[in-house]
Amino acid sequence: MSDTVELLKQNLTIDPDLQNFIHFALESVGELGGNVFAASIASLELIEKLRGAGAATGRPMPVSLQLQAHQIIVRWDDQEQARIATLKEFPPADTIARLRLHLHNSTVSADPEILSQRNAEMQRHFNEARARVESEMEELQASLYIRHQELMEVAHQAESDALTGLLNRRAFDEKLKQAFLHTMRQRNSPLSLLFFDLDHFKKINDEFGHPAGDEHLIKTANILRNIIRENVDLAFRIGGDEFAVVLYADYPLACDKARQVLKSLDHQVSIGLATINQDTEGELTMGEFIRRTDNALYEAKHRGRGQVVSHFCLTQPERQCELPCKDNNHLTACAHV
Fold first, then answer.
1. Which one from 173, 214, 241, 266 is the annotated catalytic residue?
2. CA–centroid distance for 10 within its chain
3. Which of 45, 82, 127, 237 could form a disulfide with 161 if both were Cys (CB 3.0 to 4.6 A apart)?
4. Which CATH number fits domain 169-336: 3.30.70.270, 3.30.360.10, 3.30.70.20, 1.10.620.20?
5. Is 241 a catalytic residue?
6. Residue ranges of the chain with pLDDT lower than 70?
7. DSSP letter assigned to residue 229
């Protein structure tokens, strides 16, 4: 025979379960020839330990009454145990068998009222556990939302120009690449790129100081925000007095936007413009797209500043501009290069 025999295994869900288990434990001590009085004293401490471990709280808590060598012990939580009696000698096998059968039958034929109470307590425990889990989930979701917002803010700051609030050069490289590849792949919508270089900006800093220069940069940024569609087009500050706009628009609209900026800045800005659409040569690279826009900007400055020069980036580079960019008889070119 093994040194350890399990006499009874029971879930201590409610208080009657705990009381019955202690009753069965003391009964077992008597049946196996132990000192019931001494076991009663030990059981008082056992009750406190079991309650501390979660017995009679509505949550099923398994415990085991065991005969180990000459000791009667109670085990729970796999490792915890308490001795309630020591026997003078190991009981006969038939005595142990009868006791185990009696304990089994006693637990099976439970009082219906106890069963009802146990079910009610288990339901209460389940509801409390569910409410606790739901509360913890809400707290976790709130924490994750806050963390997400913090990460979004960090990402936004990493992509933003501190002075103007526009997207910075780092964001320009990434977002232009995405827009260019999408346009060249889908071939279902045009894309325009505009470069802006403030004319005589150094003179503003030299004559009026850097605060005045900063104000002019902020003014320019606000003008660019006004010509783009929120959550569609993009505006960037890519250098000291250099700006860029990515428009999901065709040449006529891009040219019109350029004229608006030109007018708002009193013709004190040079603008280069390039547009690609379904007719653009498939071999065009993003580097070439940028180069043509930059060349258009250089040509605008070369022609005397304060004007727009465009590049269609089409298969027919000799095509003429449909919309001459004029304002109060001030020729702004919109010429092709």
1. 241
2. 44
3. 237
4. 3.30.70.270
5. yes
6. 1-2, 108-126, 312-337
7. P
